């Protein structure tokens, strides 16, 4: 496979703080990689290193595409107050010999014709994000990096955005995107890289990460719980179940491998499946809920 970027044992510090610790990562041509992590995990710093905006303190980064073949959508964009959508599109397109044509731009933005004459800052949050995206891909980059692209988008704009990403992917664009939305990795990511406190905790397919259920969750209505309280507390104690309350339900959480025994105990006490709701807590949810301990393997 042809590599687009390679990071070898990269460490980045801001003063004494290690924000990225010994990161090694390869992205191959045509791959779509989701970089997932909580606030402050180091996602934007990693992107800045790839873009050459910061130097690493240790390690090497090799970008195989030319700089002008890389498109970048940053988390926040700023434009002068007195520039229209049309003017900015024309300005950015003027740097490329093969810029997107009007029809392609219309397909991305889905703006009415009159909107092009509007000042950029009068766009809604979602419209502005689509506009940012359009500028990022106006020169048809081979490698596209997008940092939290869907912030501020409503559901239909978000769906449209992911459709555009899918089309880019079908045309062979290599994509690296960051997101806080666990469900967004399902749209077009081939791989999910989980960054946690500056360390890569997982690098695998979305399917693989989703199926790694570390915990089971059982919700029981408080009214029902009260009827069987003594017996339920005994079961909870014997399996060391984490018990919490949320409005009118009691939630039990326990390791997946205890599922059969816990459910059988509930049925023995007299609860029926109609009284309980059983759900899986995925690995991704677990990590985002800050519940994964350092020792837990992925
Ligand atoms: N220029 C800088 N100087 C000092 N510290 C910085 C700088 N840039 C980032 N940091 C720190 O590095 C850590 C990682 O920040 P980064 O922006 O990479 O995280 P992130 O995963 O992108 O977070 P978010 O999801 O909130 O955007 C944070 O603690 C942040 O305060």
Automatic annotation (TrEMBL):
Q: Any idea which UniProt keywords this protein has?
A: ATP-binding, Nucleotide-binding, Transport
List the protein's name. Answer: ABC transporter ATP-binding protein
Name the CDD domains on file. Answer: ABC_DR_subfamily_A (cd03230)
What InterPro entries does the entry give? AAA+_ATPase, ABC_transporter-like_ATP-bd, ABC_transporter-like_CS, ABC_transporter_ATP-binding, P-loop_NTPase
Q: Which Pfam families match?
A: ABC_tran
Gene Ontology molecular-function annotations: ATP binding; ATP hydrolysis activity
Q: Where is the ABC transporter domain?
A: 5-222
